[in-house]
Amino acid sequence: VHQSKLDFFCKLGYGKQDICKVLENLGQEALEDDVLKELIRMGSKPQALECQAQSSSLKLVARGSYSSTPGSKWLGEDDSDSSDHFRPIVIDGSNVAMSHGNKEVFSCWGIQLAVNWFRQRGHTYIKVIVPLWRKEAPRQDSPITDQHILEELEKQSILVYTPSRKVKGKRVVRYDDRYIVKVAYEKDGVIVSNDHYWNLQNENPEWKWFIEQRLLMYSFVSNRFMPPDDPLGRHGPTLSNFLSKKPVLPEPKWQPCPYGKKCTYGSKCKFYHPERPHQAQLSVADELRAKINVPLSLRKEKAQRNNSP
């Protein structure tokens, strides 16, 4: 039991010393949720461990060259994620599978469809979190289809199981939603789920803001994974900007003036006038002053030309 808990929290990026201290204080039979809360309370974070690993392995590097410091890998993180332009993706496996199975069957094919959709967009950090008891053989009250997909995703370091065990014949299941939100929050990523996580929003105000701003809902239409084009509403960012670390702002669209050439606002007009130069848009008063400053002889010559047959 000690070794399984140690391996699990090491995968999350926590140090062995901190894990051993917590297990000594809480006991070897402590629940994983309690151990995770104690690690958070102690201030042990995977990002802090990465910074320590980087600072301990500083090297002199020639200007213009690239060096990669071996930091602690968190949930199978690879070095290519540092240069990735897309946000990390954390998928609520149970929510996606049950949604694809019409809330009656745990359809693993739905998870594969979601993973394929993000892969085609170019995302390299994709994690699917599923309870460990889904590894067991399907029963009548909890049917599962295409269970071999879970094994394939686990081999690819995409799927991560949350721990569970049996105590006196009863299954003790950990709260996998807390793992989903915590991983997405620490990685500054996106949560893919149709769950609103109301209880976790009330538990932590920082998580409340994160869930409101980074929750990507979806639908399945004829075995097609379809997230909305406007994840945060009509006035929010587009889907591509929502999933990108550096969103691209759209170019401003100038609305043409409804009065056209009859407009008398001059340079104060907020609308676009294609007939006017962009550098100098003179008002009517400025145009009259410019005409007055024209020499009298030039105005007489112009009048004579207009009057000549």
Automatic annotation (TrEMBL):
Cofactor: Mg(2+)
Molecular function in Gene Ontology: hydrolase activity; mRNA binding; RNA endonuclease activity; zinc ion binding
Segments forming domain C3H1-type: 251-276
PROSITE patterns in UniProt: ZF_C3H1
CC terms in the record's Gene Ontology section: cytoplasmic ribonucleoprotein granule; nucleus
Domain of life: Eukaryota
Pfam families according to UniProt: RNase_Zc3h12a, UBA_6
Zinc finger (C3H1-type): 251-276
Keywords: Endonuclease, Hydrolase, Magnesium, Metal-binding, Nuclease, Zinc, Zinc-finger
Classification via InterPro entries: Rege-1_UBA-like, RNase_Zc3h12_NYN, ZC3H12/N4BP1_RNase_Reg, Znf_CCCH
Family: Belongs to the ZC3H12 family.
Protein name per UniProt: ZC12D ribonuclease
Species of provenance: Aegotheles bennettii
